[in-house]
Amino acid sequence: MRDVAIVGTGQTVHARRRTDVSQAGLVREAVDEALADAELTFDDIDSVVVASGPALFGAVNQPEKWLVDGLGGRMKPVVRITSGGGTGLAGALAAMNQVSSGFAERTLVVAYDKLSEGALQYQISTLYDPFWGREFAVGIMGFASAYWRARIETLGHTEEAAAMVGVKNHKNAFLNPYAHVRKEITVDDVLESRPLAWPIKLLDVPPISDGACAVVLASDDAAPKTTAKPAWIRGMSYYGEADNAPDRFMLQSVPLQLAAQRVYKKAGITNPRRQFDVAELQEPYTCFELSYYEGLGLCPTGEAADLIASGATEMDGDIPCNPSGGCMGANPIGATALIRLAEAALQVTDKAGGRQVPNARTALVQAGGGWANLRGVAVVSADRN
Amino acid sequence: MDTKAAAKKMEMRGKGLGSSVTENPVFPGRIELPYTLTTGRAAATFLAELANHKIVGSRCPRCDGIFVPAQDFCAACGTSLDEFVEVPASGKLSGYTETADGLIGLVRLDGATNDFPHKLLDTQLGELKLGARVEASWAAEAEGSILDIEGFALGGDEGGEVKPLEPGAEPVLEQKYEMRLDYAHSYGPYYGMLFDGLATSRRIQGTRCPSCERVLVPPREYCDVCYVRSGEWVDVADTGTIKAFSIIHLEFVGQTREPPYVYAEIVLDGSATRLIHTVAGIDVEDAKERLQIGTKVRAVWKGGDPIGSLEDIEYFEPVFED
């Protein structure tokens, strides 16, 4: 298996609603930027992976056939990957395997969703079993709020601690030109914001966004010829578990721990807090970031609230988390996980501009989808394995 | 396996717990979703100019193709297209077929690179042949839809030319769209047994994994953890404990309860799986303080005849021990 590097990234102007482009126009905007960043053209791309959320988000089934011209995928291998909220990283994993196996030298992975077009919570509720549970499902927010409430009781992941995550990520989003939500908030603002699914409140929740992200992956042979600063993918994995398995443990994501274990082993990570310079975490709600601190080993179980309170995950802390602002700046669901990967690549290649963590060489990426049952982890570094 | 045994096996397949293969009740599912789609600049212009009885295409600067209806990206080379042209409203038939709703033709407008499908009007299958001349017939009123062209009828002169579009109409950037999907889900033997029990006697049944001995609700053929075929059917109580809960204030399309209400994931006594339902019979503000992981609950069944669904349980109410 060959090593694989990120050699170009691109993102759209994310917005609550983009009325100037169709879904195809949206993906093309990210693709054009990624190709320009890599100084490549469509002719240099061997294959295309497109990733997006559930087809009902966009009202078009099998959207890859519709997008193929916008993706520059004509007469090339084109596949679509879909895996809920983590779909962007699942797409990157498929693309990485195409390159590492020798199937392609350079693969373009594009992830997007245009969430402004439909009724999001109901669309997500259709992912539930139609016989058993859909009647009472509240998108992803119902279960997410319920298990956060349980983690408050058992792990001390307080509303204040989650509010601190929101304050931090909103603050960081100011540094990110791609973020469309730029709002300075305080812990009190979060705590006093309107409850949506208590304990989840309005300011614990990211925006609903239209957006796309594109990343060009290249083999260890092609990468150095393409860029002087490749971001090496030193490990990437994606795990799942059955939604309603007996005695499913819901306070910590087991697939997340499995994915982290596997990726850390491949990348030689034994002390994540010390070895990572920066992390990009997919925190669709503030409470998830607290849970991921523990699942990813950035702190021991039950100490996430202390970690956020210590300031360690702030921009000037020892393990900055979400210098991009994370989902709080923009959350086009299908694209979100790929945005985390792209942001990590920017960090380790010193291209992150105002949100750059000084001297970052190794970055942690986390992605998640489903009812917390699909979780991915990646390690991106300026250094090869 | 000999032929006879194989035939016997095929005959048994799908019969589940003794029901027939094709004659079973189904669980109706309906998904109704509203959308406001964004058309993109090409489709927005095409749709808008239909009101002026203009058919808009896109010219590719790289390969010189003319694509109708107008496209954002060249179907031949992927180039981004921003030059719009007006294409003659007549052309030739490249293909046709008859459907229950009438004749459909593939139309190649004069000067265009591609065919597009539309209705064929005032003609019959026997009158059609490949290459026949056709021309657009316009609907009486324009609505910003492809059906502003009512269809194509035989006729139309040759010699029309593609010309630059003189923009006039305001682009139709957004379109309302309603998706309604009706499903008839097969219960299969496991859900069939469960819902029969609910409908006839308000019984909740699960299956026990012979390996880990945990009870799965809803019942399923294989244990998710052990991958062992589950066998024994067991009755599960309509009482249980709260595994997690939250309070829903959010309103959304498709919601079946009026907020605020308590969303709960409940483990029924005797089972090891989660059930998604609501908890009521307690003030929602009190619920914040009084409900906990492990709080006991019991089902409150709806009156009248059960329908065989989770909806037969109106809600779960807490049972406080003190």
Features:
heterodimer; A: about 375 residues; alpha/beta; Peroxisomal Thiolase, Chain A, domain 1; 9-stranded mixed beta sheet; two-stranded antiparallel ribbon; 13 helices; B: OB fold (Dihydrolipoamide Acetyltransferase, E2P); 3 domains; 19 strands; about 15% helix
Question: What's the helix and strand layout?
Answer:
The complex is a heterodimer of chains A (385) and B (322).
Chain A: E1 4-11, H1 23-38, E2 47-52, H2 63-71, E3 78-81, H3 87-100, E4 106-114, H4 120-125, H5 141-155, H6 159-173, H7 187-192, E5 195-198, E6 200-201, E7 210-219, H8 223-226, E8 231-240, H9 254-267, H10 272-275, E9 278-281, H11 286-295, H12 304-310, H13 333-348, E10 362-369, E11 374-381
Parallel strand pairs in A: 2-3, 2-4, 9-10
Antiparallel strand pairs in A: 1-7, 1-8, 4-7, 5-6, 8-11, 10-11
Helix pairs in contact in A: 1-2, 3-13, 6-11, 6-12, 11-12
Chain B: H1 3-12, E1 26-38, H2 40-49, E2 55-59, E3 66-67, E4 83-87, E5 90-99, E6 102-109, E7 116-121, E8 133-138, E9 149-154, E10 163-164, E11 174-186, H3 188-201, E12 204-208, E13 215-216, E14 233-236, E15 239-248, E16 261-268, E17 275-279, H4 284-290, E18 296-301, E19 313-319
Parallel strand pairs in B: 7-9
Antiparallel strand pairs in B: 1-11, 2-3, 2-4, 4-10, 5-6, 5-8, 6-7, 8-9, 12-13, 12-14, 15-16, 15-18, 16-17, 18-19
Describe the structure.
The complex is a heterodimer of chains A (385) and B (322). Chain A is of the alpha/beta class and 385 residues long. Chain A has a domain of 135 residues: Thiolase/Chalcone synthase (Peroxisomal Thiolase, Chain A, domain 1), CATH 3.40.47.10. Helix content of chain A is 35%, strand content 19%. Chain A is built from 13 helices and eleven strands. In chain A, a hairpin with a 4-residue loop joins strand 10 and strand 11. In chain A, helix 1 crosses helix 2. Chain B is mainly β. Chain B folds into three domains: 28 residues, no CATH class; 145 residues, no CATH class; 86 residues, OB fold (Dihydrolipoamide Acetyltransferase, E2P), CATH 2.40.50. In chain B, 13% of the residues lie in helices and 38% in strands. In chain B, the strands form five sheets. A five-stranded mixed β-barrel of chain B has the order 5-6-7-9-8. The longest helix of chain B has 14 residues. The model of chain B has no long low-confidence stretch (mean pLDDT 92). Chains A and B meet through helix 1, helix 2, helix 4, helix 5 and strand 5 of A and strand 1, helix 2, strand 11, strand 13 and strand 15 of B.
